[in-house]
Every structure is written in structure tokens, then in C-alpha cells.
Automatic annotation (TrEMBL):
The organism's taxonomic lineage, starting at the top: Bacteria, Pseudomonadati, Pseudomonadota, Alphaproteobacteria, Rhodobacterales
Protein name (database record): Leucyl aminopeptidase family protein
InterPro entries: Leucine_aapep/pepB, Macro_dom-like, Peptidase_M17_C, Peptidase_M17_N_1
Every Cytosol aminopeptidase domain range: 308-315
Pfam families recorded: Peptidase_M17 (PF00883), Peptidase_M17_N_1 (PF21337)
Keywords (A to Z) from UniProt: Aminopeptidase, Hydrolase, Manganese, Protease
Organism from which the protein derives: Ruixingdingia sedimenti
Record's keyword annotation contains Magnesium: no
Length: 460
């Protein structure tokens, strides 16, 4: 769906944005009838409070949105977006003194609040539209919103309608929209092209495994994005319980997120060369399924003992990362819904990332705070390296003991990148409850921070 600002020439009502500590001063700027109206409504500028102000003829003169006190604002993001669903239909403009970061957050949040996933049932169109606030880079904000909408649509679509075939179709559609070159290696051809672990994970499914490869841009440093595209994960022979499968349509959230980020980059025509690699598979069960204690040989030549068939994401990523690292590139970034350990440690909203490069980590932390896309650096802790070495093979895909699961997964992936600057994001890709600008369901994580930090990530 299209997430855009209202026509700048349209007539609009003012939306006054007021923090709790500024309420008294704001009241002093109002005419007496509006002061009495706010008092009668009990308006205290609490987070999300909205009061519509009447004009003398009984129509709408504007509205006031409360942002709460400093503590309330620190506990949430996209506070201005709360008003989008609470205001009468029409066109609005912001009346507020906002920092550039708050202004951009308000503008983006309003667009993201318009998102509706309506493939399977009709959804009411957004009624309250916003003019772009003065100073906002409209092209950039709308490109970011469009990329996020793509990510959400892909994650929200059930696996029956978003298997490897459908993910490939969406990938090729994205490439065609921006004039990128796209290719796919499917089925047994994965073995001929030395992508054996992608084949091993996906071979049990009736839907053939594949590697999707997109290239865009002809000048500038190269960024390679690698996204986990496990379109559904049963756990394989180490079968998940039914409760563990309920969200597994989102196990391609890494692929969806890098596709959304790629869309942002291409729409903004950034001066880089972009490559996107997505191993698209379904981890299913059949007579051909990989088995516990099988040993696979990866594209890089490293052998991997399969100690849990439900730790399949790192296997498909490993082959794609090895392929990415075979050519000169400014940076390789992987995104994956990889471990439950990341959620235990940091919850659904805060994304752990891993890198050996302090300059990249600092840039990502700063960008995350600036664009309100929360990240947290986790350590690639060298003393844990023996945990991923089973003795019988070079690597173990599921170390015993259950400790440091997100860290050991990142250490595993790092073994397949030798040349490039590397960053790995262990995302969740799902919003468990409705929040401002983020309805329950699929959500992008890390992409906006990465977009903001790209020069540092690429070392330019």
C-alpha cells in the first residue's frame, strides 16, 4: 500500500503537540473558550490524550495531542502517531516545536500508522492524513515508509502464500521496479553451484530451495545484504511443538527486512553498489530430510555437524555469506530471525547486533538513537569459540548446554566471512502487541538504523 503525506496545498487543521510540562504555557496561548474546553475535557497532556477543539460554528478548529512527561516519552516511540487513529478524517498539520529527530520521527510514525494488511480482509482506509512538517525530507521519509510496508507485507503473509516461489516472485518484482538484475539458483542446481547447505535444509520440502541474487548500482562501495529466507520452519526431524510453529511464517523476516532496506536504498538512488542474497527454503519433513548428527560440507569447505535440525537458519546463511565473501565488498550485513536466545536476553523490541568493528558499532548505536530504531551491541566472545567446535566436524550448528545461544550463532556465522567488514543482526521481525505506528504483526527492525549509518558501515 502507498504510505504518503497529504497534498501540501490542501486545507488542513492544526494539531498542537504538547508535553505535560508545557501544558500551562500552552493554555496561556489559547483563547478563553478553548481553555475552558480543555479543562472540561480533563486534558492533562498525558501520552496519547487527544482533544478536538471546536470552532465558533460547531466545526473543527484543530486538536491537541498530549505527549506525557519526560518519563512517559522515554518509555515509548512514535508518540505523535497515536493521534492518527483518534482524530476525525481530514488533513492535519503539526503545530509544535520539535527537534529535527522528533520531527522526522513524527512524520515517519504518522505514515507507518497508516499501514494496513488487507490481503485477506478489508480494512478501513486511514482517515486522518498529515501534511509533511516543514524541514522533513519527504522523499526519504516516504521511501523508508514504503520499504517498511514491503517488509510488513512479506512477513504478515502466511506460508501457504509466501513460500520460496512467492518470495522469489516478490524479489524479482522488486528488482524489476528499480532496474536491478536478479537471478535464482534452484533445486539440484544448488549442488552444481556449490551451495550444499541451502540444498540440505530445503530438500525435504515439496517447494524447491533456492538462492536469490540481486545486483543494483554501478558505482560506489558495495554493500551486500544477506537475509534468512526460511519461509516456514517445522524444526525438521527435531520437530517443533505446535505452539512453536505458530509464528514460523515470520522465519523469513530477515529476507523481508533486507528486501525492505534494499527498496529504501534503491528508491533513494544512493551512490553504492548493492547486492542482496536470500537463501529461500522451507524446513520440512520427508524421507529426504537432513538428520541429527549428519555432517554437511559447506560452500567454504568447513564441515558442520547437525546437532539440531531446528538450527537451520545459520546453515543457509553460511553458504550465502561464503558466496558474498568471495568478491570484494565494502561490507556484508546479515539479518535473520535466528535465535530464541536473543529474545530471552533482549525481548522482542530491542535487536542485538554483532560486529568486530568498533567504528561500525558506534555508528549503528548513534543511528539507532537518532532514528528511534533500537539496537544493542552484543559481544563476539572469543572464549565461546570452542562451544561451536564438536570435535567430529569443524563446526556444530547447535551447541549443547543452551547458554549464549545468540552469541554462538553469531560466532558460527562469522566463520564464513574472512575478507569483508561484517555485521549480523538477530532480529525478531514481529510486533507482539499493538503500539504506536507498529500494529501487531510483522515489523522491520534494524533497517532504518543501518540506512542512517551506511557511510560508516561501508567505511567511507
Amino acid at each position: 500500500m502507498s504510505l504518503c503525506f497529504a497534498d501540501p496545498a490542501a486545507a488542513s487543521w492544526p494539531l498542537h503537540v504538547v508535553a505535560a510540562e508545557d501544558l500551562a504555557g500552552f493554555r496561556d496561548t489559547l483563547a478563553e473558550p478553548h481553555r475552558r474546553w480543555l479543562d472540561a475535557a480533563g486534558f492533562g497532556a498525558g501520552a496519547g490524550e487527544v482533544v478536538v477543539l471546536p470552532d465558533a460554528g460547531g466545526g473543527i478548529a484543530g486538536a491537541v495531542l498530549g505527549m506525557g512527561d519526560a518519563a512517559a516519552r522515554a518509555r515509548g516511540r512514535f508518540g505523535v502517531a497515536r493521534a492518527a487513529a483518534r482524530l476525525p478524517a481530514g488533513v492535519w498539520h503539526l503545530e509544535a516545536r520539535l527537534s529535527p529527530e522528533d520531527r522526522d520521527e513524527a512524520a515517519l510514525g504518522w505514515l507507518l500508522a497508516q499501514y494496513r494488511f488487507d490481503r485477506y480482509r478489508k480494512a478501513a482506509a486511514p482517515g486522518a492524513l498529515l501534511k509533511a512538517p516543514a524541514g522533513v525530507d519527504v522523499r526519504r521519509i516516504e521511501a523508508i515508509a514504503a520499504g517498511e510496508a514491503l517488509t510488513r507485507d512479506l512477513v504478515n503473509t502466511p506460508a501457504a502464500d509466501m513460500g520460496p516461489d512467492e518470495l522469489e516472485a516478490a524479489f524479482f518484482d522488486l528488482a524489476a521496479r528499480f532496474g536491478a538484475a536478479a537471478a535464482a539458483v534452484r533445486g539440484a542446481d544448488l549442488l552444481a553451484r556449490n551451495l550444499p547447505m541451502i540444498h540440505a535444509v530445503g530438500r525435504a520440502s515439496a517447494r524447491a530451495p533456492r538462492l536469490l541474487d540481486m545486483r543494483w548500482g554501478t558505482a560506489g562501495p558495495q554493500l551486500t545484504l544477506v537475509g534468512k529466507g526460511v519461509c516456514f520452519d517445522t524444526g525438521g526431524l527435531d520437530l517443533k511443538p505446535s505452539s512453536g510453529m505458530l509464528l514460523m511464517k515470520k522465519d523469513m523476516g530477515g529476507a523481508a527486512t533486507v528486501m525492505g532496506l534494499a527498496r529504501m536504498i534503491m528508491a533513494l538512488d544512493l551512490p553504492i553498489r548493492l547486492r542482496v542474497l536470500i537463501p529461500a527454503v522451507e524446513n520440512a519433513i520427508s524421507g529426504d530430510a537432513m538428520r541429527p548428527r549428519d555432517i554437511l560440507t559447506s560452500r567454504k569447505g568447513l564441515t558442520v555437524e547437525i546437532n539440531n535440525t531446528d538450527a537451520e537458519g545459520r546453515l543457509v546463511l553460511a553458504d550465502a555469506l561464503a558466496l558474498a565473501d568471495e568478491e570484494e565488498t565494502g561490507a556484508i550485513v546479515s539479518m535473520a530471525t535466528l535465535t530464541g536466545a536473543a529474545r530471552v536476553a533482549l525481548g522482542p523490541d530491542l535487536v542485538p547486533f554483532y560486529t568486530d568493528h568498533d567504528d561500525i558499532a558506534a555508528a549503528l548505536a548513534g543511528a539507532a538513537a537518532k532514528v528511534r530504531d533500537p539496537l544493542w551491541r552484543m559481544p563476539l566472545w572469543a572464549p565461546y569459540e570452542p562451544m561451536i567446535e564438536p570435535g567430529i566436524a569443524d563446526l556444530d550448528n547447535a551447541p549443547a548446554g543452551g547458554m549464549a545461544g545468540s552469541i554462538t550463532a553469531a560466532l558460527f556465522l562469522r566463520r564464513f566471512v574472512d575478507r569483508a567488514r561484517y555485521v549480523h543482526f538477530d532480529i525478531y521481525a514481529h510486533q507482539p502487541t499493538d503500539a504506536p505506528a507498529r500494529p501487531r504483526g510483522g515489523v522491520g527492525q534494524g533497517a532504518r538504523a543501518l540506512l542512517e549509518a551506511l557511510p560508516a558501515v561501508l567505511g567511507v
